[in-house]
Design goal:
Blueprint: E1 3-6, H1 12-23, E2 27-32, H2 35-47, E3 53-57, H3 63-76, E4 82-85, H4 102-127, E5 134-138, H5 145-148, H6 163-181, E6 186-191, H7 208-219, E7 230-232, E8 239-240
Parallel strand pairs: 1-2, 1-4, 2-3, 4-5, 5-6, 6-7
Antiparallel strand pairs: 7-8
Helix pairs in contact: 1-7, 3-4, 4-6
Length: 243
């Protein structure tokens, strides 16, 4: 049975991703900053008949928490097949680049960039023991410099000063990581699209089911699948997007 860790998975897109992967027979380590909320999510999944799910406490901004989660998972399995860095924050809107508080920028980067990097580095030893390791960085169309530079793009005039750049940085790390790891690793940045969740006060038009599908797609790609690419439901639904 293949194993997967999903950060920030006790609700919304992360939760639905866990449900879909569990439905495909994966053993799920459902990461949550608040263990109680993680356990409540697990109970909901088990009530649906998805029994191979376990809550793991992990705060991606806390190195000790990350290492404790890694050590706990290492006691349970000999390898990790999939890591989905899903945990993220928006930092609140609006974020005018000229006056967004630097404290907001740092807080967003701590979760969206540095957190993803710390988790990836901590779990690399378990991932490299898998014959087909997969890493998915959950990103956003707002991370695309091409879209922000295109007057015809809907993102041309909407470029929040903390969240957007944090996803651009995450995309850049994805490219560097994919180049370093190469086969058998597959490392991709995946944007689930503007989805109706409490992340955006339920304003997005997309469903969590469709959002999770694209994440699951690249979490489960075969040996001939892509690596070091950017896929976005916002910029090119289901397909490769411009950086």
């Amino acid at each position: 049975m293949k194993t997967v860790l999903i950060t920030g998975a006790n609700k919304s897109i992360g939760y639905e991703t866990a449900a879909q992967l569990a439905g495909q027979g994966y053993r799920i380590f459902l990461g949550a900053r608040d263990l109680k909320k993680g356990e409540e999510a697990v109970a909901q999944l088990k009530a649906k008949g998805l029994t191979q799910v376990e809550a793991i406490q992990i705060d991606v901004t806390d190195k000790a928490s990350i290492e404790a989660a890694r050590d706990l998972i290492a006691q349970k399995v000999s390898s990790l097949d999939v890591l989905i860095n899903n945990a993220g924050i928006s930092g609140g809107m609006p974020q005018n680049p000229i006056d967004v508080p630097i404290e907001t920028v740092k807080k967003v980067y701590d979760t969206n960039v540095f957190g993803a990097i710390m988790v990836t580095q901590a779990f690399y030893p378990l991932l490299e023991k898998s014959p087909e390791p997969r890493i998915v960085m959950v990103t956003s169309g707002l991370g695309s410099l091409t879209a922000h530079s295109d007057p015809n793009s809907r993102f041309y005039t909407f470029n929040p000063g903390a969240y957007g750049p944090s996803k651009t940085a995450l995309n850049a790390y994805t490219v560097a990581l994919a180049h370093t790891l190469r086969d058998p690793f597959k490392v991709n940045a995946v944007c689930p699209g503007y989805t109706k969740t409490d992340f955006n006060q339920h304003q997005g038009p997309g469903s969590v089911e469709d959002a999770a599908k694209i994440i699951v797609k690249y979490a489960t790609i075969g040996v001939d699948g892509p690596t070091g690419k950017y896929f976005s439901n916002d910029l090119n639904p289901g397909g490769e997007a411009p950086w």
